[in-house]
Design goal:
TIM Barrel, 2 domains, two-stranded antiparallel ribbon, 12 strands, RNA methyltransferase activity, 4 iron, 4 sulfur cluster binding, disulfide bond
C-alpha cells in the first residue's frame, strides 16, 4: 500500500484535497479530530475508516530494547512477516529503515549479510515515524536504518515530501543517508524539499571504500566532495559524512592526512563513529585513546567533526543485530 493508492481511493469516493490533508495529518501526528476538522462527506467515511485500519496494520512492534544513552531499538513485523528495525533516538529523533535487508554489502554491517529481500513502500517507511510518536514527540527523522535509500529512491523521496508537508519537521531535520548515487544527487538538487544529507564515506580512498562496501556503484570520493559543496550551498546547511572507524583498516595516518586534505574549504561535518562489533566478525573498534588522538589531529587540521559512539551499542542493535537475533528466535 502506497500514498498515491490511498489518495486515489479517497478522491474516487468524493474526498477533496482538504479532506486528504487532514486525513494524513491525523495519522502521522496521531491527532484526534477536533471541532475544526473538516467533516468527511458521507461517501468518503467508509473508505477513510478502511484505510485507517489498514495503516494500523502496516507494522507492529514485536521487540524493543532500551538504554539511557542509545534510545530504544524496535523490531517491527510487517504485514508479510518480514522484520525491520527502527531506533527511537534521544532528544526527539527516529532512525527509519527503507528496505528489508540491503544490497550494498558493507563488510562491517549485519544487515548486509542477508542481502536485499524487498523494498519498503512509502507508507511502510512512514509507519515507523507514526509508531515512534507513540513513544515521544518526533522532531527529526533520519533515513539511516536498514537499506540503502538510493536503491528505493522513489518511495524514499515520497516519504520525505510527505513529512515535509504534513509532519511539521523542518527540511534540515529530515536526514537522508546514502553511500553516494548520482540519481539521488540529481533528484534532491532538483527538488524543492532539500533534506539534510549524510554521505557514507568510511574511507577517503576509492579502492578501500569499494572493499568496505563491495556492491556500491563506483563514484570517486572527489566527486562526492564536489557534490557535497554544491548541495550545501543550495540547501544552506552543511553535508555530513559518516566515517565508521575500524581498527587497523581505515584509521591510519594516511587516511587522517587525506581527510584533512579533502576537507580544505569544505562546508561539511565529519561524523567519527567506532564500528559496532558483530559476533563472528574480525572487525574491532579502535581504542578510545586512538579515537581521541585522531579527533585531535583532525581538529588541528581544521576539520569540523563530531565524535560519537555508535548508536545502539548497549542494546546490541546496531547494523541489524537485533533483527538477526529475533529471526533466530522465530526459527527455533
Amino acid at each position: 500500500m502506497e500514498i498515491r493508492e490511498v489518495e486515489e481511493a479517497l478522491l474516487q469516493n468524493g474526498a477533496l484535497q482538504v479532506h486528504i490533508d487532514h486525513f494524513w495529518r491525523q495519522w502521522i501526528l496521531r491527532k484526534a479530530p477536533t471541532a475544526r476538522t473538516p467533516r468527511l462527506p458521507f461517501s468518503v467515511q467508509a473508505a477513510a475508516q478502511k484505510y485507517k485500519e489498514e495503516l494500523n496494520k502496516l507494522a507492529e512492534v514485536v521487540e524493543e530494547c532500551s538504554s539511557p544513552s542509545d534510545g530504544t531499538r524496535l523490531v517491527l513485523k510487517l504485514h508479510d512477516g518480514q522484520l525491520i528495525e527502527s531506533v527511537i533516538l534521544p532528544r526527539g529523533g527516529v532512525c527509519v529503515s527503507t528496505q528489508v535487508g540491503c544490497a550494498v554489502g558493507c563488510v562491517f554491517c549485519m544487515t548486509g549479510k542477508f542481502g536485499l529481500i524487498r523494498q519498503l513502500s512509502d507508507l511502510e517507511i512512514l509507519a515507523q515515524v507514526e509508531i515512534a510518536r507513540r513513544y515521544q514527540l518526533i522532531k527529526k527523522v533520519v533515513f539511516m536504518g536498514m537499506g540503502e535509500p538510493s536503491h528505493n529512491l522513489r518511495r524514499v523521496l515520497s516519504s520525505i515530501n510527505f513529512l515535509a508537508k504534513y509532519s511539521g519537521i523542518s527540511y534540515k531535520n529530515l536526514v537522508l543517508s546514502t553511500v553516494g548515487d548520482r540519481r539521488l544527487f540529481d533528484a534532491i538538487m532538483a527538488s524543492k524539499v532539500k533534506p539534510a544529507l549524510a554521505l557514507s564515506l568510511h574511507s577517503t580512498f576509492d579502492e578501500k571504500r569499494k572493499q568496505l562496501m563491495p556492491n556500491i556503484q563506483p563514484m570517486p570520493v572527489a566527486d562526492m566532495m564536489a557534490f557535497a559543496a554544491e548541495y550545501a550551498k543550495a540547501g544552506g546547511y552543511p553535508v555530513q559524512f559518516q566515517w565508521t572507524l575500524i581498527d587497523g583498516v581505515n584509521d591510519g595516518d594516511e587516511e587522517v592526512e587525506n581527510v584533512i586534505f579533502l576537507w580544505k574549504g569544505q562546508k561539511a561535518i565529519l561524523n567519527m563513529i567506532p564500528v559496532n562489533k558483530i559476533a563472528g566478525s574480525p572487525y574491532e573498534r579502535p581504542s578510545d585513546e586512538a579515537m581521541l588522538s585522531i579527533a585531535e589531529r583532525l581538529k588541528k587540521g581544521c576539520v569540523l567533526l563530531k565524535y560519537r559512539h555508535s548508536a545502539a551499542q548497549e542494546v546490541e542493535g546496531g547494523c541489524g543485530q537485533l533483527r538477526a537475533r529475533k529471526m533466530e528466535e522465530l526459527a527455533e
